[in-house]
C-alpha cells in the first residue's frame, strides 16, 4: 500500500505526516546522504513514516530544503548541511548513501567535484559504517553498464564505459564506489548493499534538472519545442520514484549483499516517449531534433530477475500512471515559479 500512495505526505494533527510508533529495539538511526534531493527526499518520507530516526546529510548542490522542510522540527528528524567529501562523525545503524548529482548537466558541471563526491565521499561513508558497525547501501546506477553490449542488462554484465569521456566522472565514479563497497566488505566486514538504479522520475525532480522526463514535461506544458537529442531511437526504461523507494527499503532490509538492478523494464525509444508526454499533456509543442550528446548509451533496460527472487520486489506503477502524477507535480511547480501554462 505504501508504494501505491499517490501523495507522499498527508498532514496529521501535529502538522506532520503521521509516523509509526516503533518499539525502541526496532527504531533505527538512519543516515540518508543526498536526502534533500529528488530520490533522497522521497526515501526520507518513507523512513520517517515507518517510525525511524532520520538524519539527512546534504550540501544542497542539487537538493532543495523545500524537499524536506515538512519534517523540520520533528523529534525523529535532523538535517545536517554538509559535504560527504569531508569526514563526519555520527552514530547511526544504517546509511543510505545517495549524495551525488545524477543529471548529466549537473554531474558534468564540475566533473572533478563529481568524481571526488563518488570516491572520497563514499570512502568517508564506508569509514563511518566501519567505525559504528552500520549497514550501508550505495545508490549506484545503470550507467555502470555504459553503452551496453547485452540487452537487457543483468547484474553479472561488467559493462562498456568510456573511461575518459564526459560521462566518465559519473560512471567511473560509481564503478569505483562499488569497488570500495566490496573492498570494505571483504577486508573489514562492512555489511553492504548496492542498488543499480535505472532512470527514475516523479515528484521533487528539480524543474531545471535537465533530465529527459523533466525537460519533456516542462517543454510540453509550456508548448515549447520538445528537444530530442539525436534521432530519438535510443531507448530508456523509466520507473516511478515510489517503486524505487520501495526497492531501496526492501534491499536494505534483505539479506542479499550483491548488486541489484532496480528499474522498470518498460522500455521506450526517446522519440516515442516524447509523443507519449505530448499526448498526456495535450500539448501543442513541436518535437525537434538537436545534435546527439557524446557517448549517449544506445539502449537501456533492466533485467529484474534478481530483485524479484532475492528481495521480493518488482515495480507496481505503470509509466503512464507515474507520468500523470508527475505532470500534475510539474504544473504546480511552474505555477509556484510564476510561469504561465498556456491553456
Ligand atoms: P539529485 O541531484 O536530486 O540528488 C542528489 C543529492 O545529493 C542532492 O540533494 C545534492 O545536493 C546532494 N549532493 C550532491 N553532492 C553532494 C556532496 N558532495 N555532499 C553532500 N550532498 C551532495 O539526484 P537523484 O536523482 O535524487 O539521485 C540520488 C542518487 O541516486 C544519486 O546517487 C544518483 O547517482 C542515484 N541515481 C539516480 C537515478 C535517477 O534516475 N534519479 C538513476 C541512477 C542512480
Ligand atoms: N571517516 C569518517 N567518519 C567516521 C570514520 C571515518 O568520515 O566516523 C572517514 C575517515 O576520515 C577516512 C575515511 O572515512 O577518511 C575512511 O576511514 P577508514 O577508517 O576506513 O580509513 P583510515 O582513516 O584508516 O584511512
Ligand atoms: N534526452 C533528450 N532530450 C532531452 C534530455 C534528454 O532527448 O531534453 C535524451 C538523452 O540524450 C538520453 C535520454 O534522453 O538518450 C535520457 O537522458 P537523461 O539525461 O534523462 O538520462 P541518462 O539516462 O542519459 O542518464
From TrEMBL:
Cofactors (names): NAD(+)
Localization in the cell: Cytoplasm; Golgi apparatus, Golgi stack membrane
Full protein segment contained here: 77 to 419 of 434
Domain of life: Eukaryota
Pathway field: Nucleotide-sugar biosynthesis; UDP-alpha-D-xylose biosynthesis; UDP-alpha-D-xylose from UDP-alpha-D-glucuronate: step 1/1
Domain NAD(P)-binding: 31-325
EC number: 4.1.1.35
Family membership: Belongs to the NAD(P)-dependent epimerase/dehydratase family. UDP-glucuronic acid decarboxylase subfamily.
Membrane topology: Single-pass type II membrane protein
GO function terms (MF aspect): NAD+ binding; UDP-glucuronate decarboxylase activity
EC class name: lyase
Protein name: UDP-glucuronate decarboxylase
GO biological process, one term: D-xylose metabolic process
Amino acid at each position: 500500500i505504501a508504494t501505491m500512495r499517490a501523495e507522499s505526505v498527508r498532514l496529521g494533527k501535529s502538522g506532520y505526516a503521521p509516523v509509526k510508533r516503533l518499539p525502541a529495539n526496532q527504531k533505527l538511526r538512519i543516515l540518508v546522504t543526498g536526502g534533500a534531493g529528488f530520490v533522497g527526499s522521497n526515501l526520507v518520507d518513507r523512513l520517517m513514516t515507518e517510525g525511524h530516526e532520520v538524519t539527512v546529510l546534504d550540501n544542497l548542490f542539487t537538493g532543495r530544503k523545500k524537499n524536506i522542510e515538512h519534517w523540520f522540527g520533528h523529534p525523529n528528524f535532523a538535517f545536517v548541511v554538509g559535504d560527504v567529501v569531508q569526514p563526519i562523525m555520527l552514530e547511526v545503524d544504517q546509511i543510505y548513501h545517495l549524495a551525488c548529482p545524477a543529471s548529466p548537466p549537473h554531474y558534468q558541471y564540475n566533473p572533478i567535484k563529481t568524481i571526488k563526491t563518488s570516491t572520497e565521499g563514499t570512502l568517508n561513508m564506508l569509514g563511518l559504517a566501519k567505525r559504528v558497525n552500520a549497514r550501508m547501501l550505495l545508490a549506484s546506477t545503470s550507467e555502470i553498464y555504459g553503452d551496453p553490449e547485452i540487452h537487457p542488462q543483468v547484474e553479472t554484465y561488467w559493462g562498456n564505459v568510456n573511461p575518459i569521456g564526459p560521462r566518465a566522472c559519473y560512471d567511473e565514479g560509481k564503478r569505483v564506489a562499488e569497488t570500495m563497497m566490496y573492498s570494505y566488505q571483504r577486508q573489514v566486514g562492512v555489511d553492504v548493499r548496492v542498488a543499480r538504479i535505472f532512470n527514475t522520475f516523479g515528484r521533487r525532480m528539480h524543474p531545471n534538472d535537465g533530465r529527459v522526463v523533466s525537460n519533456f514535461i516542462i517543454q510540453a506544458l509550456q508548448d515549447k519545442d520538445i528537444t530530442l537529442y539525436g534521432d530519438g531511437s535510443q531507448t530508456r526504461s523509466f520507473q516511478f520514484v515510489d517503486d524505487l523507494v520501495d526497492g531501496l527499503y526492501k534491499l536494505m532490509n534483505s539479506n542479499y549483499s550483491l548488486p541489484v538492478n532496480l528499474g522498470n523494464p518498460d522500455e521506450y525509444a526517446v522519440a516515442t516517449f516524447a509523443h507519449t508526454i505530448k499526448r498526456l499533456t495535450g500539448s501543442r509543442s513541436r518535437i525537434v531534433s538537436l545534435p546527439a550528446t557524446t557517448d549517449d548509451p544506445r539502449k537501456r533496460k533492466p533485467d529484474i530477475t534478481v530483485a524479484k527472487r532475492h528481495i521480493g520486489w518488482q515495480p507496481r506503477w505503470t509509466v503512464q500512471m507515474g507520468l500523470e502524477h508527475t505532470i500534475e507535480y510539474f504544473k504546480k511547480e511552474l505555477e509556484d515559479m510564476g510561469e504561465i501554462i498556456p491553456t
